[in-house]
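PROTOCOL LOG
Step 1. Enter all chains and additional molecules of the complex.
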Amino acid sequence: MNAPTKIVVIHDGLIPNVDPLLVALRIKFGEENVAHYENSDDGLNYVLENINQKIIVVLDINFSKGELSGWEVFKSIREKTALIYIILITADELVKLKNEDLKFLINHDAFALEDVTADYTKIVSLVEDASHKLNARVDSVLEDWITTQSKTKREKPYITTKEGRTYTLDDILESIRQQTDIGKHLERNILKLAVDLLTRQKTKLDD
Amino acid sequence: MIRTFIAYDDNDVELGDYFESSHNDIQAVIAANGNISNVSIQGLDCTEVFINNTIKPLNGSRFVFIALSHGNEKELVSHEVYISSNNSTTFTNCLFYTCACSTGNGLGDNLISAGCLTFIGYFDTVLVNVDYYQVFFTCQNYCIKSFFSNDETIEVSFNKMINFYNSEIDHLIVGTIDDVLAASSLIGNRDCLVIFGNTNVARTDFSF
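Step 2. Run joint prediction.
Step 3. Record the structure below.
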């Protein structure tokens, strides 16, 4: 079974608890897995404190003065991780968005940009799509396995490099999530193994 | 008779046991072969001065040097750097074999430029899964053990090692997820193996 994905909605224009988007997301992903923040600073703090979990962020771009804008929240998350999927919602027409902001979104893997007036089911559908992609990623597959292991096993040395560094299973998951050098190396090895086995015909796609 | 030296860092906190077992694995093949002499250099003696003083009396004769320790692009390291560009000329006319990280991405070229005949190592981070020491060092030692045991070129021994990696990977992938993760580390190690220099040398080229 997949470890649950947290859906974090950072949006000050939704009615807490009863907004159709929030209701639909809670039905689809479970009450406990959907968090709504009207204040963008609070939403950002929640995301950064839970950076090692599987998270999808639904982020409004426009917030009240004195709060972080959606752009700033997006940039702050991207400074820490490229692995959280972010769906942005804007009330502005695309032509009114700054070129620099649009470039930043594209170059830093925004999952989607949607109109605030769009049918809320469109946004739910985008979240489902992001969730599927998240579950198919190497770190998610590993997390699903690691979470079933005992605490003792997760905390004991699991891999050592001949550069002199040792990693536990929890360290491995964190390094893949945060895309450190060793995280990328391990992720690449796992993908290589799959490709190698297929190319050497040791397994078939329907296995 | 073939002269060999095995430097192994049995003193290392993380992988001391691993390097020692790896040394014993190669030493067993050497001991069974009456035509190979070996000097084993333990961790505390893995210093630049000790290594230079041990090898220099050979006066340019051919020999095999095996280094089982940590390393990086520029050097091999025990409690201090013991092989680097500082002493690369010490390894003139040598078959150099190491399991250390990343030495194939710098140090190997440096040794070859300084007159080393053949270099075998890894150009990137080498991983060892903690509960799988034997599989990992058996793979890593396969080439040099085959070279000592057969009349074949080092290139043939090297390719046999790749095949051995593949067979071990194939055994592991039908096991538990721990086994599969070990297989993924082995595949990463296999794919960063490098051989530089003269690949046609055979053990007879090192006999005196």
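Step 4. Note key features.
The first helix of chain A runs from residue 20 to 29.
Chain A has nine helices and seven strands.
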